[in-house]
Amino acid sequence: MSDRRVVITGLGPVTPIGAGTADFWNALLAGANGIRRLQAFAPDRFDSQMGGEIEVLKVADHVPKSYRKAAKIMARDIVLAVVAAHYAVTDAGLKTKCVLDRAEAEGEPNLESTRFGANIGAGLICADLHELAEALHGAAEGGQFDMARWGREGMQNLTPLWLLKFLPNMLACHVTIVHDAQGPSNTITCGEASSHLAIGEAFRTIARGTADVCICGGAESKVNPMALMRQGLGRRLSTLNDTPEKACRPFAAGRDGTVVAEGGGLVILEELEHARRRGARVYAELVGFGACNEAYDPAQPSRPSPEGRGTALAISKALRDARADTAQVDLVGSPACGLVERDAAEAAALKTTFGDRVADLPVLNVKGGLGNSGAGSGAIDFIATVLAAYNATIPPAINSQTIDPACGLRLVTGDPVDARVELALSLAYALGGGQHAALVIKRFRDESA
Fold first, then answer.
1. CATH of domain 6-126+166-442
2. pTM
3. What is the distance between the alpha carbons of residues 363 and 380, in angstroms, rounded to a whole number?
4. β-pairing, 362-364 with 331-333?
């Protein structure tokens, strides 16, 4: 087993309640809510008409001047990742090509580009419907789509680089180009589990010596008609349109679904000695990773086992990897987003794992004010858990004051709670496909100081 230790030195959240570490953390402590009636398009024909939107997001503010033209081939998901990367890199104090080109730091790079990797989770990127509609109109004859006309005339309405806006790997592509990350790079597309799986892979990459620094996490926007339709057809969405700010209620009695959102986050993982040499601030140490697939019902892959077998197995693997046991866990970062079966299965897994301790074990959940941003949601949850451990404070969940008795967890609500966290779990699972993941975060102690 490798003796290379991996620490977290930079955080880059981009969410409906704030972007950047300080704004995001302060918003969590204040119980901020980013859910409202959708503004990006008219949602009137949908059963669920709300979501978590990010109002101001300018990619030009986060890339070198020479790279701004590339924004023309960036879908919303890519923009989220590029912005998150800038926040994470600057928060970590890394002098990457982007940071130096923007004159945000002086001197030479403080990392080797060939030892700088990237693992980024991505979702199904929605095509620009206005752009696509014009092309489809040109391919129609008598109100019917004609393949020959599509090739001959319809596609002429699309830019030759059109496809590059919508490939999932383009999030990592742009991030690595902007910051000159020439190390191992990978894209993971496993729904809400994507960010955790990407962080876990980055953790392994550094631990086995293939890289010294990795930027990892995920981003996705579900604030578009296609995502809203898919989630609606899957019967995952709340319909409390008259009170959107109260719609997403993880673990709460009477919950009726989640809400779509956009956002994500990237984090900087770094080999400990590399971080020490450049005097980096360390948020926490990442000490364990576990993942599994819960093949419970092949006919309904989005349905979890009632006892939460997948979550329990991922936790078990992560703790074993961390050489820790359940008695050492002080905090659980929960991915619950208000789905009745999913929340109940997660609660059952925690009860099975922690037994009688579950009644006293604090659970952190931030989805009530953020909604579900798919591949980006896990990174947001992870960052919130890291900040809670670092600041010895657990921010409150909102809309979950009345906990479902069947769940029976100690969800932190009301006001922030002071808590010394030595070991924390951050969990994730995909709503479709059965992927589960768990990461173990440890309070950092610098024995060399």
1. 3.40.47.10
2. 0.96
3. 15
4. parallel
